[in-house]
Design brief:
It is a single chain. The protein has 183 residues and is an alpha/beta fold. The chain contains 8 helices and 7 strands, in the order βαβαβαβαβαβααβα. Helix content is 45%, strand content 17%. Strands 4-3-2-1-5-6-7 form a 7-stranded parallel β-sheet, sandwiched between helices. Strand 3, helix 3 and strand 4 form a beta-alpha-beta unit. Helix 1 packs parallel to helix 2.
């Protein structure tokens, strides 16, 4: 049963308004289903959009942020819970512990790193939680092609590649993760 979803996403909004709209839709959709949002605890970009949309829909939002980012004044102090960690490593471990599934929206290095870490954890049997890439407007098409290339080159096992679920819409994402609850 999925009670909490970790959402990995950018601390910026990007240049395409579809990314912001998807972040808001995801936050709202999770809250409506009484699924808590676990995220990076920031008050900027897509992270803020997910958190604010969930809060507006009476959802539970748990932020996990390292001290270095609190010091840069980007922590969101208006969420349900805010956990401050000493390092990025402890941040990711706590997010992974609290989440029952993972969704990655568009993002940059931090989002990629979080996504690939939970994928690596899954292949090492550290967890067996679903991992989904929300491929808004084809944002991740080239990454998905690269992963297929890695399989073709024998650097990634097909069964490991198949761990990464892919959806192009929030509706499809939630249908894959929570199939018994329709949007």
């Amino acid at each position: 049963m999925i009670r909490n979803v970790a959402v990995f996403c950018a601390s910026t909004s990007g240049t395409n308004i579809a990314y912001l709209a998807a972040a808001e839709e995801l936050g709202r959709a999770l809250a409506i289903r009484k699924i808590g949002v676990i995220y990076g605890g920031s008050n900027v970009g897509l992270m803020r959009a997910v958190a604010e949309a969930a809060l507006t829909a009476d959802g539970k939002v748990v932020g996990v942020i390292p001290e270095v980012l609190v010091d840069l004044e980007v922590a969101h102090h208006g969420i349900t819970e805010l956990h401050i960690t000493s390092t990025m490593h402890t941040r990711k471990a706590l997010m992974g512990e609290k989440a029952d599934a993972f969704i990655a929206l568009p993002g940059g290095f931090g989002t990629f790193e979080e996504l690939f870490e939970v994928l690596a954890w899954h292949t090492l049997k550290i967890h067996a939680k679903p991992i989904l890439l929300l491929n808004i407007n084809g944002f991740y098409d080239k990454l998905l092609s690269f992963l297929d290339h890695c399989v073709a080159e024998g650097m990634l096992k097909q069964r490991s590649r198949e761990l990464l679920l892919v959806a192009n819409t929030v509706e499809d994402a939630l249908a894959q993760l929570v199939p018994s609850v329709a949007i």
